[in-house]
Design goal:
Layout (H helix, E strand, L loop, with lengths): L13 E2 L13 H17 L2 H12 L11 H14 L6 H14 L5 E7 L3 E8 L2 E2 L4 H4 L3 E5 L1
Parallel strand pairs: 1-4
Antiparallel strand pairs: 2-3, 2-5, 3-4
Helix pairs in contact: 1-3, 1-4, 2-4, 3-4
């Protein structure tokens, strides 16, 4: 259980980054860029609880009934953006944007925040046991404290 009382996320066993084909990312890259820009502004402006509540509100009403855009395509779009934008220090904004896109496309995404001692934090998105924008070894050292 995390601080919010939700069940802990499933431990990830694989990553879309290991199977990514960048050509699949071009179609969604402009949408991903807009989503990321909005998320960066919200992280700077709003409280984390407010942002997470908005994500939860939008989770119940996907914009597309069928997942036309796969999880892999969303992961590829954000990986493609990483080639051009320095996103390494923006894991929260990136994870918010990925989570929103996946949920709008009808996927069940979990945004996870983890901590590592002495003091480090990281945020990632997973769909069941699949990581969207991180590799398994990158997040293995982090203990999840919040999953939504």
């Amino acid at each position: 259980m995390d601080a919010e009382g939700a069940a802990a996320p499933v431990a990830p066993t694989c990553s879309h980054l290991d199977l990514i084909k960048l050509r699949h990312g071009w179609l969604l890259a402009p949408v991903a860029l807009v989503a990321l820009s909005i998320a960066v502004l919200q992280v700077r402006r709003d409280a984390l609880r407010t942002i997470l509540d908005r994500i939860e509100e939008g989770a119940g009403r996907p914009r597309l009934k069928l997942p036309i855009f796969s999880e892999a395509m969303v992961a590829a779009a954000f990986h493609l953006l990483r080639q051009f934008l320095p996103l390494d220090n923006h894991c929260l904004a990136r994870s918010i944007a990925i989570s929103r896109m996946l949920r709008r496309f009808g996927h069940h995404a979990t945004l996870v925040i983890g901590v590592q001692l002495p003091i480090a934090a990281h945020c990632w998105v997973q769909c069941e046991d699949w990581l969207m924008a991180d590799r398994v070894d990158r997040i293995a050292a982090f203990e999840p404290i919040l999953a939504r």
